[in-house]
Structure to design on (347 residues):
């Protein structure tokens, strides 16, 4: 599925204009009460309605109980509900989520730039060369960073909405492009437009260090055969935290693939505990993330960072994902489950 990409301006008045659009849609931070922030999660997922397999219902119910009134977790339940689609949100202006982490977004898909003392690590590269020119490059300049300092492009997986601008960045700035071997192989088989030339393989648990900043890269197959989820050190003033970015959320269709996805959730939860992860990030608007970015942009200095969830809440995020995937597995194993003709190609 290919969505049209919105180009991002970098003028000072962009923030006010985009926030007005978000507010008009009723999704800007503070514009709606929490109870209305994720309407698809407010009731049972569609697959638990009358006539659907009862085996899945307890898992979906447990996910909703775990989510409670938390807008981040409710958004996750909505995103993993069978039949759900990504919200079509306007592209926000670039914003620093932390002192060393920049959100660069086309609205429905986002990239992150990790700023270090010796250059930039770009995590994902949006959908196309046009996104590299229209969003990534001016977005970095808008927050005072030099796009020529991009040394590495880490691709979370081999779908075009994440690798589309990678080759442009590599050609222009000499950046090295990293992806898991399985997803390099995926590109070799499918030969999509704008695919980057094969460069560096990501090993499971690999540590990428630049300018004193070390990013851990973990294989979390499920969304694609070689999805990678980073653990990123972030800082706010003198405070240092550990952030996670789940590399690909949209689940596959078969029970076997879903079990692989679930095993990745379990393995990555252990990584998160060890790393004391307190920050949750996403490359799609499936976690109340763009709303939180606008909240961060508007709030006074010293206010709590809405991306800093704390250890227990980030673990609960993964527990919600666990429960929803168990429901999806039960649905896939039901006698009435129908095979999906084609694999998902994004998100």
């Amino acid at each position: 599925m290919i969505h049209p990409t919105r180009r991002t301006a970098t003028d000072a008045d962009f923030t006010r204009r985009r926030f007005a659009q978000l507010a008009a849609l009723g999704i800007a931070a503070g514009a709606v009460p929490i109870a209305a922030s994720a309407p698809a999660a407010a009731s049972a997922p569609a697959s638990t309605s009358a006539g659907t397999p009862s085996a899945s219902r307890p898992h979906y119910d447990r996910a909703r109980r775990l989510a409670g009134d938390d807008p981040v977790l409710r958004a996750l339940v909505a995103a993993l509900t069978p039949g759900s689609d990504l919200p079509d949100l306007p592209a926000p202006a670039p914003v620093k989520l932390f002192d060393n982490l920049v959100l660069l977004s086309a609205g429905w898909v986002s990239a992150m730039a990790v700023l270090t003392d010796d250059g930039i690590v770009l995590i994902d590269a949006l959908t196309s060369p046009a996104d590299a020119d229209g969003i990534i490059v001016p977005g970095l300049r808008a927050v005072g960073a030099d796009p020529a300092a991009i040394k590495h492009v880490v691709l979370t997986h081999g779908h075009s909405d994440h690798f589309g601008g990678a080759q442009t960045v590599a050609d222009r700035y000499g950046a090295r492009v990293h992806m898991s071997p399985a997803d390099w192989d995926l590109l070799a088989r499918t030969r999509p437009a704008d695919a980057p030339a094969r460069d560096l393989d990501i090993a499971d648990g690999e540590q990428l260090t630049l300018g004193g900043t070390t990013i851990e890269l973990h294989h979390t197959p499920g969304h694609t055969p070689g999805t990678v989820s980073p653990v990123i050190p972030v800082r706010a003033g003198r405070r240092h935290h550990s952030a996670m970015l789940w590399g690909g959320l949209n689940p596959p269709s078969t029970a076997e693939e879903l079990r692989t996805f679930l095993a990745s959730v379990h393995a990555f939860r252990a990584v998160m505990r060890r790393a004391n992860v307190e920050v949750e990030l996403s490359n799609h608007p499936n976690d109340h993330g763009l709303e939180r970015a606008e909240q961060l942009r508007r709030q006074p200095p010293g206010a709590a960072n809405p991306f800093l969830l704390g250890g227990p809440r980030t673990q609960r995020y993964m527990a919600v994902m666990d429960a929803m995937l168990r429901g999806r597995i039960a649905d896939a194993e039901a006698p009435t489950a129908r095979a999906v003709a084609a694999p998902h190609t994004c998100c």
The mean pLDDT is 86. Residues 296 and 305 are 7 Å apart (CA to CA).
